[in-house]
Design a protein that fits this description.
The complex is a heterodimer of chains A (139) and B (468).
Chain A (H helix, E strand, L loop, with lengths): L8 H11 L4 H14 L3 H6 L9 H5 L7 H12 L7 H23 L30
Chain B lengths: L3 H5 L3 H9 L5 H19 L2 E4 L1 H16 L11 E5 L26 H8 L3 E6 L22 E2 L2 E5 L5 H8 L6 E5 L5 H7 L2 E4 L19 E6 L2 H11 L27 E6 L8 H14 L3 E6 L6 H16 L1 H5 L9 H5 L9 H22 L4 E5 L24 H8 L3 E8 L5 E7 L5 H14 L11
Parallel strand pairs in B: 2-3, 2-6, 9-10, 9-11
Antiparallel strand pairs in B: 1-3, 4-5, 6-8, 7-8, 7-12, 11-13, 12-13
Helix pairs in contact in B: 3-4, 6-7, 8-15, 10-13, 10-14
The chains are: A mainly alpha (139), B alpha/beta (468).
Chain lengths: 139, 468
């Protein structure tokens, strides 16, 4: 299922778990998911469409989801696979994603009204004396 | 050529006067600067490529035209260099990136065309931080030409991302250069090398043919010895361009009023976080304010409450991720010089669209609030940078103190306001420090006038480094 340009998902999960110490704990659910996804289709068919039997405590406990950072890192590295990802890259990208999420949260918390439109065509703004419209005046 | 040192650090007006007085020809000037570029360019890691043949052909034409009475204006016959993110037909354009070092374009950038039409002589494609620094470099060694070295101290950084223009103009290898700024890339190298560097209003100068890092934040501008030179160069490169839909649809003319009619300026200052500012920077800044009190009034203001840096960085991150997705997914990105640049763009590929749109929405509010605030002033005056330049062997975080001490840098770049930095002294290491004037949109002439007035009262712009 892999081409020379695609990182093996099992290998990827193992890389994350083993190499990136900062991710180790967070990657456990991902590794499990990845392993499950990697099972051959035939294996899944063997189980039919029935859900797997769950132990009583599993049925009631809320599912342990990976963090948003891990989900995005997983998506990113699967969408853009590369053999170049190493521990430094994983950790760097993970930190960047965390920063991006914080940045998005800050933007989302800024008070905006429904009518606050983005400037789809950006231009430097200068209020005109008469109309208050976008400037056509010069100094 | 009996006064080479004077030529090396002469202003455009001074060189132009010598050309018109027949004291020197453009070919002689060009030979002089070509030899300096070839000798010292590698010393400072300032040059990607010297364009000797093209330059001499253009200089010869300039001389012939002047002899025939055709004078194209102040830049006629004046050598210059451009940051290597401007396309030049027949000459590789590397964007500072190893995997793109042989990249070719089939046309010249509009700025290159306009400077040719103004009679200027293209002598070099100048070094730059790879991909204009958009991949998050954290130290000086982030270009396939090596770390840009400061014109005043080769153990220190020249600044970025217009590193080559900074050190080349600073060391007298060219009289002026064109740099680009998305967020600080003209101001930083101009400040660290003791130049006068200008960031025009967004859209004032066509971006056609320039590498896009952020379509809505990239600006091209002059890096020169004086504010007056910046005005002369901007006059040649400003104006509407049908090839750049974001260019401002009206002409712009440099206005240099008579020195016999001095004007009074209305300056604003901001509360500066001096805890992050080197003592010498603070002292130079306060001395500059004293000098400016001779020509204007002052009022301390506060910027409106907005997440300026978050807006600016989100816009850059999202636009660069679209501009460079192919570069990243092709694997070329892994050939970049700085290790942190090789993966620094990836996270941007998964930023939600709504974050970008919210940044654009907030930007609109910032524009209106800032315009209302700045309409009362000719310029906001701030220290250009928190420190003089630092060692190339250290990460920026170890010495830069975050580069700037107010939120104005992020605000003005996010919304495309013009700014100019001029030298205002030296730091503890003996490297230049800078003073920045930021103006209302469209007010390039006003901040140029303020910077010129400052330079009429000081001589920091006449100081020159020892080049060897």
């Amino acid at each position: 299922m892999s081409s020379p340009n695609r990182i093996d998902r099992r290998h990827f999960a193992a890389q994350l778990a083993v190499r990136a110490s900062v991710l180790t704990a967070a990657m456990a659910p991902l590794a499990a998911t990845s392993a499950a996804e990697n099972k051959p289709v035939a294996d899944k068919n063997e189980k039919g469409d029935k859900p797997a039997e769950k132990k009583p405590d599993e049925a009631t406990a809320p599912p342990e989801l990976p963090s948003a950072e891990v989900i995005l890192l997983t998506y990113l590295t699967r969408r853009h696979p590369s053999d170049h990802y190493d521990e430094a890259a994983f950790q760097g990208i993970f930190r960047d994603i965390r920063g991006d999420i914080a940045r998005g949260k800050q933007l989302g918390e800024f008070p905006l009204k429904n009518s606050d439109e983005p400037a789809f065509v950006f231009a430097a703004y200068r209020k005109t004396e008469e109309s208050g419209a976008r400037s056509q005046e010069s100094e | 050529m009996n006064e080479p040192f004077a030529f090396a650090f002469a202003t455009i007006r001074e060189l132009g006067a010598k050309l018109r007085a027949r004291e020197v020809t453009s070919v002689q000037l060009t030979e002089f600067f070509l030899s300096r570029l070839e000798k010292f360019g590698p010393v400072y890691n300032a040059v990607v490529r010297v364009t000797r043949d093209l330059a001499l052909a253009q200089a010869k034409q300039s001389d012939e035209e002047l002899k025939a009475g055709k004078d194209r204006g102040p830049l006629h016959g004046i050598p210059f260099g451009v940051k290597d993110l401007l396309a030049t037909k027949g000459i590789p354009t590397s964007w500072g990136a190893a995997p793109l070092k042989d990249q070719m374009f089939d046309e010249d950038a509009t700025v290159v065309v306009l400077l040719r039409e103004a009679g200027a002589v293209l002598c070099a494609k100048l070094a730059m931080v790879e991909l204009a620094g958009g991949f998050g470099y954290k130290q000086a060694n982030a270009s396939f030409t090596g770390p840009g070295l400061n014109a005043w101290d080769k153990t220190c950084w020249s600044g970025g991302s217009s590193s080559g223009p900074g050190s080349a103009v600073g060391a007298g290898l060219v009289p002026f250069a064109i740099g680009s700024e998305t967020w600080g890339s003209i101001m930083t190298p101009a400040g660290y090398n003791g130049l006068s560097g200008m960031r025009p209003t967004y859209g004032r100068v066509s971006r056609h043919g320039a590498m896009a890092l952020s379509w809505t934040m990239d600006k091209l501008g002059p890096m020169c010895r004086t504010a007056d030179d910046c005005g002369l160069v901007l006059n040649a490169i400003a104006g509407p361009d049908p090839l750049d839909p974001s260019s401002i649809p009206r002409e712009w003319t440099y206005e240099r009023e008579s020195p016999s009619k001095p004007r009074r300026f209305r300056f604003a200052t901001l509360e500066v976080d001096f805890a992050r500012v080197a003592p010498e920077i603070r002292a130079n800044y306060e001395a500059s304010l004293e000098a400016l009190k001779q020509i204007g009034s002052f009022e301390e203001i506060k910027l409106p409450e907005f997440p300026y840096g978050t807006v600016a960085s989100t816009i850059i991150s999202c636009e660069m991720s679209a501009a460079f997705e192919g570069f990243m997914t092709s694997g070329d990105v892994w050939e970049l010089t700085a290790p942190e640049d090789r993966f620094g763009g990836f996270s941007n590929l998964v930023i939600p669209a709504k974050d970008y749109i919210n940044a654009l929405r907030i930007r609109g509010k910032i524009q209106r609030a800032m315009d209302e605030l700045l309409s009362r002033f000719d310029a906001v005056v701030t220290p250009t940078l928190n420190t003089e330049s630092g060692p190339i062997t250290q990460k920026f975080a170890e010495w830069s103190q975050g580069f700037t001490s107010t939120e104005l840098s992020g605000a003005s770049n996010a919304i495309g306001l013009p700014g100019i930095t001029v030298p205002n002294g030296f730091g503890a290491r003996g490297l230049p420090t800078g003073l920045e004037f930021t103006g209302r949109a469209d007010n390039e002439n006003t901040i140029l006038a303020a910077a010129r007035a400052y330079q009429q009262r000081t001589d920091w712009h006449t100081k020159t480094p020892k080049v060897e």
